[in-house]
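Notes on consecutive records. When two proteins share a document, each keeps its own sequence and its own token line. Never mix them. Below: protein one.
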Amino acid sequence: MKLTSIMPTRINLMDGCFTAPEIQRKTTTLGNLKGIFANSVAWQAMPSELTVYHVEMLPSPQQEGELYVGTTHLHPGRVGHEFFMTRGHFHQRPEQAEIYFGLRGHGLLLLQHQDGTCSLERVSPGSVHHIPSFTAHRLINIGHKVLSTLAVWPTVAGHNYEALQPRGFKLRVLVDGEGWKAEAQYE
């Protein structure tokens, strides 16, 4: 029997970039994030084509038992007193969990459970985060460099952005001097 050696897909753990022939890419600009930031006047004053984050994903069959692997690269920046952040979401199939690995930069992972309780986890190189089922999640870049995370999640999970409407996440993370603070937006 003759065995062949296959060169697997590679990821640069320093920057989170994949080396693969087929990578799915999606860029989210400031213009795509209408209603996400509290200060709509500051949001409108900024260039709508400004990249806030981009995602790279390896292709995978969308069926029960399969996993996606992808990286999110969240740029540093602010809209008013809020740091750049991802849109955030529950999963379409809310019983599906997810894992994040911090690769570079410094940020926060905002978790909001279905009962409305929230928590914040610090994201940095080497950090590992379990996002439980029935939990909305959002990345927030509190640093001055790109925040990159590697994520693994079921291909059947989907994204449900509407579940957070009309009020959005309960917590907002704001600039506080050289640091940050979290403020509840509603009870």
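Protein two starts on the next line and is unrelated to protein one.
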Amino acid sequence: MTNIYWESFKTFFKIGIFTLGGGYAMIPLIEEEVVNKKQWVTKEEMLDLIAIAQSCPGVFAINIATFIGYKLNKTRGAIATTIGTALPSFLIILLIAIFFHQFEDNKVVAAMFRGIRPAVVALIAVPTFNLAKRAQLNIWTVWIPIVSALAIWMLGVSPIWVIIAAGVGGFLWGKFSSRYNGITR
């Protein structure tokens, strides 16, 4: 029998080391490993964890890893998955900081970074569309993320206010829509 701490650490270390583009680019890898292969969480739980991780302060990938680790084995599980997620980035940044000055003017390295950018955009776009499908966005709800993004981008509204407004709006929607459907909460 494998040690759950070591297993969860290895899983999130592998996800962390092979992901470029940050937390959102990690979503497909996390989902493949944690939902499909290991079955530590369900697809519905994963969607909820993503929503919670986005709402919490801090790094998205660390948040989601911490929540999954906590679900697996409380505080010790959270520590194992958090360190597993953060350690690869820490080591890579440390190596870059040590050696970057030797390569900063290298045209090949600069070209490689330019080539990586479109792939990172795709790695972020795909999970966004998959989340939208699973969140059951439709013609009546698709305006919410669009208006939110425009408010942040064009009007400079703080994402914190958007999150608070969405939370309050969701609460009120649930409260009042249940009354009209004959359901009490």
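For the record: The helical segments are 4-17, 23-37, 43-55, 60-103, 107-134, 143-155, 159-180.
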